[in-house]
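Workshop exercise sheet. Pairs work together: one partner reads the sequence aloud, the other fills in the structure field after running the prediction. Swap roles for the next sheet.
Pair: D.N. / O.F.
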Amino acid sequence: MSVTATAIPIQKHAGQPGPRRRRIRSSLAERIAPYAYVAPFFVIFAIFGLFPLLFTFYVALFDWNPIGEQTFVGFANFERLFADPRFWNAFVNTFGIFLISTIPQLLLALVLAHLLNHARLKWANFFRMSLLVPYITSVAATALVFGQIFDKNFGLLNWVLELFGLPSVNLLASQVGSWVVISAMVMWRWFGYNALLYLAGLQAIPREMYEAASVDGASSWQQFIHLTIPSLRPIIIFTVIMSTIGGLQIFTEPLLVAPETGLTCGAGRQCQTLSLFLYEQGFGQFEFGYGSAIGVALFVIVVVAALINFFLSTRTRGAQ
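Structure field:
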């Protein structure tokens, strides 16, 4: 008696996905994954960046009382802004401090990075890392130190001037003098940070390029102009744009350099910047509509300045 084996077909479970369905799900997950990775940034930016910006534009169209009524006034706040001499004074102060602090700061950072990259120093890493000390120092502590240096009565600067028989000066009493004091604070705090950025870019340049230039007879200055600067162009563009954005929004240094005068930064508003003027009107006078109009104007100024920097750097790169 023989027994024949019959093949019994194995049925798939109804809940188990087939190979094609698994491929579709895997492909869909691969497409969605990149968006899921970057989604947290855009969600946070939308909540804490985009929404406050749009709300500022909205409030600028109102006579906004935080504890009273909000009356729609259209562009009346902007008309008032452009006719306000305090706004133009803050505008001039902001650009004056920005120019005096940013240009020397970036030049000094570039020269210092070049020296640290080529000089043979003992404990070179120590000197390089010490550049971050001003950056990590509290702005309040920096303001106290510089306030003592430039104090009109007992400052270090006037003490040195008296040693040489020169009259004492009160820099904070004049507009340009206050610009110099605030610019010195900004330069001391940020030049080390920018120098480290330049130094990182310099260390990425192959040494063979400098050796070949030396063999061809190029001097150190020619190597710096025709080799170092072009190689650092992307980093230079980055530092210029970031310094522009930060310099036009300067707030803490002018606020702390003359604490006895508060938000006006001097009896004659000689060092009041746009950010200080915005804070004075919005949170000092509780004119939220007018303060928002100042914020919108500051936003436009920063964007235009950044675009000009980008355009000039692009044209320079294209010409070369």
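Discussion prompt: DSSP finds 14 helices and two strands in the chain. What would you look at next?
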